[in-house]
Structures are given as C-alpha cells and as structure tokens.
Amino acid sequence: MRIGEIAALVGVTPRAVRHYHHLGLLPEPPRRANSYREYGFRDAVLLARIRRLTELGLGLDEVRDALADDEGRELVEILEELDEDLGRQEVAIRDRRVRLATLLAEARAGRLTADGPVSPELTRVLADLGDLPDSPMAVKDREVLALIDTVIPEAERARLMGALRGMAEGAGEVYGLLDALADAQPDDPRVTRAAAALAALLPDELGVQLPAEGADGLADVFFADLAPAQSAAVRQAVRLVAERQEGTP
User: Average model confidence (pLDDT) for the chain?
Assistant: First the structure.
C-alpha cells in the first residue's frame, strides 16, 4: 500500500501519517524502486492503534510511551490516568454548568448587569447596590469588583462577596464624596471626610489591608487609575479600618 491507501484504510490523513513518521511513532517502511513508501499489514495495525489511542485523548508523547511497552502494562497506567483526568474535567464542566444556570436565571429575570457574566455572589452584591446615581467612582468600583471576581480563588471570592453585601446602604454617599475629589489635591480637607465615610462603610470582616507599593499588581492598577486625592482618601480609609481592627477586643 502507498501512503494514501493506508491513510484511507485506517481513516487518517496522509499528512498525519507523515507526522507520525517524523515523531517516531510509526517506523518508516521500506521504499520501492521509485522511492515511494510501501506499507504492509503490520504498518496498518500499528497506525490503527495510534489512531485509537489519540481518539481516547492521549497526547502523542503518551502514545509513544504506550507503544513502547509491548506487554501493555504502561498502557493500562496511562489509560487509568486519562480516566481520572476526564473525571476531573467532568466535575469541572458540571460545576461550570451549575454556575451558568444561575447566571442564565439572573439574565432571564433581567437582573444580570452589563458587567456580567459574573459570579452569583457578585450578582447579588450588585443587585443590592441597585441603581446608583451617575457616578464615575461607582462605575470604576463595579469594574474592579468584576476583575476581582474573576481572578481570586472561589473560596476567597465567596468570603469577600459575603462581606460586601452589607455595604449597599451608604455607598451612594461615599461614591459622591470620592467623585468630588476628582480634581482635588491630596491635602484637600475633603479627603479626610471621604476617608472617614468609606472606613465606616467597610466591615471589619472584609480584612482590608494596604499592600506595599509594587507588591500587589491589582492594587497598583487600582490606585493608578484614581485621581491623587481619591487615592489618598482610599489609602487613608484602609488605614482607619486597620486601626479599628487592631482596637477591636
């Protein structure tokens, strides 16, 4: 058989056969006088096995390991590992579908915000905040929350969003105070008032800490996007919360 014939027989492409030759999975067969490869029955059996293994989800390196063990003991181990991996993927897909079902229900009820899709926990936080006045700081805050919602671990996200749910009342006033600092200087007296209002809004269980400059990429991006007076107010609020936590029995 020529390469096109063996490829058609096994159900792969001639390009795949050449690739398997290149990787050493399929030995090169003898060639005819005209330099064409001449494939036999054994080549077709091996090529069919390679196809079956790849269809099971094995990578080509794993296929090579499986083919190198004539007694098939390593193949059993590889297939067991593949089965475990597929099981983990199955659980992950199931979890994602559960989350998607929650988001879909929120969307159908008209409660999914423009920041979505976000986690169910953040969806509830944003629903609590409701329709705030036209506030640039509120928009920025929602964007930051959506980013945090994506990048932090699931367990930490649940804790954080749970703490944030009690902040809806009074958020509008704080956003207004921070918006007013957009063109102010860090030493503006209004910085202290805004910081005190924000600190009063932040719950102790939020565990707010101020990272050192350059130590936290997310914090650095957040503060870089604020006006100088707004940054000063938020940093001061974080310090006030830390002092309050230290003074709590």
Answer: 79
Residue 31, beta-bridge partner list: 37
Whole-number Å distance between alpha carbons of 237 and 81: 51
Other residues' Cβ atoms within 10 Å of the Cβ of residue 20: 21
Give the dihedral sign, CA 117/118/121/127: negative
pLDDT digits (tens, 9 = 90+) for 4-56: 999 998 999 999 999 999 999 999 999 998 889 999 988 988 898 899 888 88
Question: With bands split at pLDDT 50, 70 and 90, how would you rate the model's confidence at 206?
Answer: low
Between CA 96 and CA 89 the distance in angstroms is: 10
Question: DSSP characters for 45-69?
Answer: HHHHHHHHHHHTT--HHHHHHHHH-
Report helix, strand or coil for 9: helix
The model carries a pTM of: 0.50
* Total residues belonging to the chain: 249
Alpha carbon distance 188, 184 (integer Å):
6
